[in-house]
Amino acid sequence: MTEKQRAYDSAQTRERILSHAKALFSQKGYKGVSINDICAATGLSKGSIYHHFKNKEDLFVHLAEAAFVDSWKDWDTRSASFSSAVDKLYAYSELFADNVDLSLTKAGEDFIATTGADSEAVQKFGAMITGYVQRFEEIVREGIERGEFKQQEPGEMAFALLSSYSGLANNTRILDKENVKRMYRKMTDMLLDGIRK
């Protein structure tokens, strides 16, 4: 077997682990999944799992990072056609509504609640969330600079807006997709009533 073939096989194994782990975390939450569960789902040994990831925390952080990267790629594509911050906020609420059923989000909450705040993995996860809020802050800052939004601290506004969308996500899981989108649009109307100039 050539070096190139080994690297390809290694990459495929890593993707297999990530794919099965994502399904398990989405289904059972972070706390409900063990390395043994991942081994059973992938048909791999613990040694194989640990060859690619330090531990379950490291594996989850890799999944979260990929999810954030995909989310921003999707956002960058969607937002390119909007010129106003108000339109971008509506577009973002639609993106959030489209992804509200991603139960990996709930697994992330479980991860934070069950993993020690001092762990390296939680620190990395926290940095990802901070980066997410900062990206969203760009929309708010743009709205303030263009005179669309009231003059307030952009970071606090971004955090409050994202928290509102996340809170709504916890309460719309029983609704069909059209009603979820309608609720996110309504939430955006109400939020804009509070921040629009």
Provide structural commentary.
- GO terms for molecular function: DNA binding; DNA-binding transcription factor activity.
- Keywords: DNA-binding, Transcription, Transcription regulation.
- By secondary structure, the protein is mainly α.
- Helix 4 (56-79) runs parallel beside helix 7 (120-145), helix 5 (85-98) runs antiparallel to helix 9 (177-195) and helix 8 runs antiparallel to helix 9 (177-195).
- Helix content is 78%, strand content 0%.
- The radius of gyration is 19 Å and the shape is elongated.
- The chain folds into two domains: 1-53, Orthogonal Bundle (Arc Repressor Mutant, subunit A); 56-195, Tetracycline Repressor, domain 2 (Orthogonal Bundle), CATH 1.10.357.
- It has helices at 3-28, 35-42, 46-52, 56-79, 85-98, 104-114, 120-145, 154-171, 177-195.
